Structure formats: C-alpha cells, structure tokens
Amino acid sequence: MPDVQDKLLEVKGLKKYFPITQGIIFQRVKAHVKAVDGLDFFVRKGETLGLVGESGCGKSTTGRTILQLYRPTEGDVIFEGKNLASLKGEELRKMRRHMQMIFQDPYASLNPRMTVGDIIGEPLEVHDIAKGKEKKERVQELLTIVGLNPYFVNRYPHEFSGGQRQRIGVARSLAVNPDFIVCDEPISALDVSIQAQIINLLEELQQKFNLTYLFIAHDLSVVRHISDRVAVMYLGKIVELTDRDALYKNPLHPYTKALLSAVPIPDPVVEEKRERIILVGDVPSPVNPPSGCRFHTRCPIAIDRCKREDPEFRNVGNEHYVACHLV
Q1: Other C-beta atoms within 10 Å of 294: how many?
Q2: 180-184 and 99-102 strand pairing
Q3: N or C end of the chain: smaller count of CB under 10 Å?
C-alpha cells in the first residue's frame, strides 16, 4: 500500500443500494438494487484511475457516491483525510469545492435556460469565490483554457456542438480549482474525431493544474491511453485492479480476459490469430446477484467453490489486485 500522504482518495467497503418499493400510499421496501456492493480502492494524487465494465455494472453510481451526490448505504469515502460519508450540511458543501464532476451527456448536463457565462460562473458564486466583473473575467479565462472563444459568455447551450458543450462542462468543473474530478464517460456521447480532442484537453489540464481523475469509460483503448491504473468492475464489485500495462499485457481475472479479447486490433494478422472469448448468458440482475463469485454464472473456468464462496479481493504481487479463487 502507498504512503498515507500519497493518497488523495480512499474508498473502504463502499455500498450503495437503491430500494424497490411496493404500494401507492404505504410504500414497503420489497427488495434492493445492489448497484455498488463493497468496493475497496485508493487514488493517488495526480494520477488517473480508469474504471471500466459493462453497462449497468455500477460505474457511474460509484462516481456519484464518492462525490456524495448519492449518499452511501455503507462504507467510508476518505478524501484528504476526511470521511465524506459522515459529513453533512455546510461541512460537506465546503468539501465540494475540492471535487467536481464532468457528466456523460453534454446535451442534458447544461441548463438550456442559462447562458454559458452563468453556467460556468455559478460555482464561483455558490462558493463565494468571485462576483461581478471578477467573475466575468474568470469565466472568460476558463473558456480560453478549454479552447473556446472567451466572448461566447452570452450564448446559450443550444448554439454549440456536442464537443463544444463538453468543453463548457469541463470549464465548469475547473471553475473552483478542484483537486479531484470524476469524469463520467465524458466522451461516449461524442463523435470519434471529437473524442480525441477532449481526451487531449483532459491530459493537458491534468498536467497544468495537477489534477487527479477517476475516469469512467466503456472504451478500453481510451482507458489504456489516459489511465495510470485500471479497475475492472462487474455487477457492483471490482474484480481486478492494477497498473494499465500489467492489465493489458497480463490480465488475471477471466472477466478481464474476455473484455480485452473484444478490443479490436488494427493489425489483421494479429487479429486473425488471437483467441476471442465469448461469454455465455446475460449479466445477472443486481436485485438478486448470484451467490459466491458474481461472475461464476458466465465464467468459462468456474468450479464449485466459486458458487459458494465470494473470492477475496487480494494483492497477488506488485499491487495487482484480483478477486478470483483460481488466480
């Protein structure tokens, strides 16, 4: 484990369950959607931790629960030495200045009734950082930083393309000089040519402002490019976590191997020779996940023990964490 001073964020036993209720007047909780079910990881200062997995595995919920947009059902989120899960009211509001989020959909995350100047300037007013002329100058500076014309302050979101809107979202997240940003699939709704521009912008900003990212994505090629370490998530749990090069060269968990086998390789000779792992069945419901290892219903190498025992998420050497009985 790294030195305590080296960690910006540490997550311990994080769980987020959403209740399923029945009845119109007297609502009874009949079950829970176990979106996030016991996560343990840390993020070092200045690094990018990639979080990958299939749709519905709990990636976005993890990001939102860390920022306390969803309050955790159980567990601790220790940020700069403070447990965010136990903070409320003014204390939590002050901590929000140090952590921000870039949302997935640039069309839905910007208020259509507000100008760009108001959207980017709102965090400055909420945290009493700048007002009036000072606020306008700061907004123009932020627009320049993300590669937009500083005189766009009086325009509305509908006047911009998807890539430009996402740049506005990036500028808004930078307004309060945060230390940590959750990037919730920031490029998945954009054209491929624009995706590269946004990735390059995020990398430039990280270097310039010493930012720390939790980068949530589907595209494993993008994650390999931008991340220092990668966590692979399946049905509410992290199944593998290690350095990006170690993960791509030597994946240990059968689910990680299946994911990586689906990534297209531009060399047709290599593509033809490699083995493609096809997983059987569908992802089980997070309302009623399988007993033991979550992945055993689809795993090509599962044994009886996998059905009974939940594998420990353990370090198998060189900070390579994996949750599998057969590793």
Answers
A1: 26
A2: parallel
A3: N
Walk along the chain (327 residues) and give the pLDDT tens digit of each residue: 445 558 999 999 999 999 999 887 888 889 999 999 999 999 999 999 999 998 889 999 999 999 999 999 999 999 998 999 999 888 999 998 999 999 988 889 999 999 999 999 999 999 988 888 999 999 999 999 999 999 999 999 999 999 999 999 999 999 999 999 999 999 988 888 889 999 999 999 999 999 999 999 988 888 999 999 999 999 999 999 999 999 999 999 999 999 988 887 777 777 777 778 888 888 899 999 999 999 999 999 999 999 999 999 999 988 999 999 998
Neighbours of 319 (CB within 10 A): 13
Which residues are registered as beta bridge partners of 256?
Answer: none
Query: What 3-state class would DSSP assign to 90?
Result: helix
**Could you give the angle at which helices 162-174 and 116-126 cross, rounded to 10 degrees?**
20
Say how many residues make up the chain: 327
Sign of the CA dihedral with 186 first, then 227, 64, and 207 last: negative
**H/E run at residue 233:** strand 229-234
